[in-house]
């Protein structure tokens, strides 16, 4: 018998209102820690996407509407949204943790707070960033350069950090003057109800943000909708390629934040014992379900056994349990399908000759929930499947190297290039190594995303950047207005 109060909704947030769904499907969410029903929402249909895009289009095209509001008014609206998100922060964290197994301790410092931080950051940034400048033309005359909102945005997000990743897109898009249709992932839809409430409370004009949950087919329908101007996608590289292909055919701007298989390069002078907490956050946060984690640990041959020992000690000491328990450090993975996938990789690792130092199975004391033990593989070659493909679970592969050049070569020998980290007692030396890694972001002795820093990938990890001023630019298009010099203007009249 479930002890969980069900979170159910019968309506979708479209055009600034809670509306009847146009289809009859429902998305039923199962709690990752207990496998019990957690709640349900209507599954969006193509007709709902049509309505949502129509509402976003009307809001964008409205003369005097959102896209042409004075910047100060949009900034104030974003700050109201930040307040409304903040007041729902704890409940947002609880719902995310319930659905996808994120430890509540992690959800309370990410999903509960980061969305509001982003709304405030972009409110501040857009106030300081002129939308219009005048340049002296090299051939005479003046040039007006305008930064205009790109239009109606389709925002497609995964389940691992559903509210942070929604706001990575929403905050800069709204600041720029765009309107948005958000498509949450079916695994995490209950938190999106709170986002809708916050948008209503912040009194954003009708249609500026619309939310239509559904699966990949619905996402694909949004991607190619003729009335959408830009797609912002976060998900796997496999799906990202499909989205990119379609956007390429349509010549539709697209930002892609995709998978990763980043490297933690442990230098020979690293103080790992003093960095266990930071190492945990950089390698195993959110049960290993974060795109930018350093899941390949590169250890110098001279300290290989010691590094394996520190990681095994870390993994063995982690509190595995129900994600809603405050003491839990590792919860379940997000779904039965995800656990199958992770277990499949663990089998492949064993079959290819890697050695399980700790973990490798399901925790003995958990008969419900999609748990996988934190697992450390040693004796891994960079060619093994577990070193090449994204596992998205609490599984690390430790690979030996000899000399910095080999460490950098191994880090770069990957299809991906999203995150990464360097561990050393000499931060300058660490930075010098970091600069040699082909990746969109990398940390020295920690790895923490910051709203002010552009985030995104190279190679199969994506195209474009979110966060920072670069994240705002991704929702703006430039227009140059050539102003004739006074003499020519007079001649023309
Ligand atoms: P996924 O690609 O299966 O799905 C992501 C989202 O895209 C979901 O909303 C899904 O419904 C939708 N989708 C899937 N196929 C689509 C298509 N063809 N057209 C339109 N929409 C489609 O990924 P997932 O399993 O939900 O999430 C995990 C993946 O996301 C991992 O690979 C992870 O690395 C990646 N991720 C990347 C970042 C980043 O910023 N780079 C952040 C978080 C997660």
What is the CATH class of the largest domain?
Alpha Beta
- Give the strand content: 15-25%
Alpha-carbon distance between the termini? Answer: 82 Å
**Residue-averaged pLDDT, rounded?**
97
Q: Give the count of structural domains.
A: 2
Secondary structure class reads alpha/beta
Annotated CATH architecture of the largest domain: 3-Layer(aba) Sandwich
Give the overall silhouette: globular
Largest sheet: 7 strands, mixed
* Strand adjacency order, main sheet: 15-16-17-14-13-19-20
| C-alpha-based Rg, rounded | 24 Å
Q: What are the distinct ligands in this entry?
A: nicotinamide-adenine-dinucleotide
Structure annotation, total helices: 17
The residue fraction in helices comes out at 25-40%
Can you say what the CATH homologous superfamily of the largest domain is?
Answer: Aldehyde Dehydrogenase, Chain A, domain 1
Total strand segments: 23
Give short descriptive properties of this protein.
single chain, 493 residues, alpha/beta, Aldehyde Dehydrogenase, Chain A, domain 1, Aldehyde Dehydrogenase, Chain A, domain 2, 7-stranded mixed β-sheet, 6-stranded mixed β-sheet, 23 strands, 20% strand, binds nicotinamide-adenine-dinucleotide
């Amino acid at each position: 018998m479930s002890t969980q109060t069900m979170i159910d909704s019968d309506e979708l947030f479209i055009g600034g209102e809670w509306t009847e769904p146009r289809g009859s499907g429902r998305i039923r969410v199962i709690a990752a820690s207990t496998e019990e029903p957690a709640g349900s929402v209507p599954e969006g249909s193509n007709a709902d996407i049509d309505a949502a895009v129509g509402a976003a289009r009307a809001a964008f095209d409205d003369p005097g509407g959102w896209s042409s509001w004075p910047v100060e008014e949009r900034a104030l609206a974003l700050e109201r949204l930040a307040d409304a998100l903040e007041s729902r922060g704890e409940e947002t964290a609880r719902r995310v943790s319930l659905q996808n197994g994120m430890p509540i301790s992690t959800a309370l410092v990410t999903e509960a707070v980061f969305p509001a931080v982003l709304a405030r950051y972009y409110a501040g940034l857009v106030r300081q960033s002129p939308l219009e400048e005048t340049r002296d033309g090299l051939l005479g005359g003046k040039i007006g350069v305008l930064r205009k909102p790109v239009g109606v945005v389709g925002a497609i997000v995964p389940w691992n950090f559903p509210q942070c990743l929604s706001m990575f897109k929403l905050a800069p898009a709204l600041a720029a003057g765009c309107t948005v249709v958000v498509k949450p992932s079916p695994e995490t839809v209950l938190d999106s109800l709170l986002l809708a409430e916050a948008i209503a409370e912040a009194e954003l004009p009708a249609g500026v943000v619309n939310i239509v949950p559904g699966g990949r087919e619905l996402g694909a329908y949004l991607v190619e909708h003729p009335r959408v101007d830009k797609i912002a996608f976060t998900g796997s590289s496999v799906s990202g390629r499909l989205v990119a292909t379609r956007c390429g055919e349509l010549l539709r701007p697209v930002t892609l934040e995709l998978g990763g298989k980043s490297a933690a390069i442990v230098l020979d002078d690293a103080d790992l014992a003093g960095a266990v907490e930071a190492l945990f956050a950089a390698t195993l946060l959110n049960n290993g379900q974060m795109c930018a984690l350093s899941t390949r640990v590169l250890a110098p041959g001279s300290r290989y056994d010691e590094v394996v020992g520190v990681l095994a000690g870390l993994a063995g000491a982690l509190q595995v349990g129900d994600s809603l328990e405050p003491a839990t450090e590792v919860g379940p993975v997000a779904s039965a399908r995800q656990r199958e996938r992770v277990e499949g990789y663990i089998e492949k690792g064993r079959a290819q000759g890697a050695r399980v130092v700790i973990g490798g199975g399901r925790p003995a004391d958990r008969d419900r929930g999609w748990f996988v033990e934190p697992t450390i593989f040693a004796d891994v070659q960079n060619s093994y499947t577990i070193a090449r493909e994204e596992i998205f679970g609490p599984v690390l592969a430790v690979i030996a190297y000899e000399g910095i050049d080999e460490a950098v070569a191994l880090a770069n020998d990957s299809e991906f290039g999203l995150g990464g980290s360097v561990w050393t007692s000499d931060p300058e030396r660490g930075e010098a190594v970091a600069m040699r890694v082909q990746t969109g972001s990398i940390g020295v002795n920690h790895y923490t995303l910051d709203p002010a820093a552009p985030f995104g990938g190279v190679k199969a990890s994506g195209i474009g950047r979110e966060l920072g001023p670069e994240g705002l630019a991704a929702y703006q298009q430039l227009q140059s207005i050539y102003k004739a010099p006074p003499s020519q203007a007079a001649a023309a009249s």
